[in-house]
Amino acid sequence: MGMLFCILTHIEEYKYLLERSRRFLETAELQLSRGFYDLTVFSLEQALQLYLKAYLLKLELEFTKKWSIRRLLELIYKNTNSEEIRSALVNYAVELGSLEDAYITSRYVAREYCEEEARKLLQTVRGVMGIVGRSIDR
């Protein structure tokens, strides 16, 4: 039995990544409400990563699937010159680093997160998504 591959158009892939991002964000909120803070943070990293990749597609920019959140956000900044995105890179530097670490530690290191960390990272992800959306969708 052969495999069927579905090739998505540029716009379809953009919409697909946005929908997956939304689902990861919704999953993170559910996990937060259940006290699963490590899973919350992992889902937040995935939500933001997919969101940024969707907007890179919208800008018709190429990226590598292995790039970090900060690298993806820097590429968006370089192509929009948005002062708000530049500020986000500076103001959320620690939080973005924590999200990147969450992706790695979820697989290899036993790392616990507290509720306050998870809530702060949820605010960060929502904030960055809002900034990127406003900067590109104008």
Describe the structure in your own words.
This protein has 138 residues and is an all-alpha fold. The chain has one domain (10-136): Up-down Bundle (Four Helix Bundle (Hemerythrin (Met), subunit A)), CATH 1.20.120.330. It has six helices and no strands. Helix 2 (37-58) runs parallel beside helix 3 (69-80). The protein is globular, with a radius of gyration of 15 Å.
Task: Supply the key terms.
single chain, 138 residues, mainly alpha, Four Helix Bundle (Hemerythrin (Met), subunit A), 6 helices
Summarize the structure.
The chain has 138 residues and is an all-alpha fold.
Set out the fold topology.
Elements: H1 10-34, H2 37-58, H3 69-80, H4 83-91, H5 93-108, H6 115-136
In CATH, the topology is named Four Helix Bundle (Hemerythrin (Met), subunit A)
Largest sheet: none
In terms of per-residue confidence, which ranges show pLDDT below 50 for 5 or more consecutive residues? none
Please identify which CATH superfamily we are dealing with.
Nucleotidyltransferases  domain 2
Query: CATH first level: which class?
Result: Mainly Alpha
Individual helix count: 6
Question: How much helical structure, as a percent, in the residues?
Answer: over 70%
Order of helices and strands: HHHHHH
**Net shape:** globular
pLDDT averaged over residues: 91
Number of strands: 0
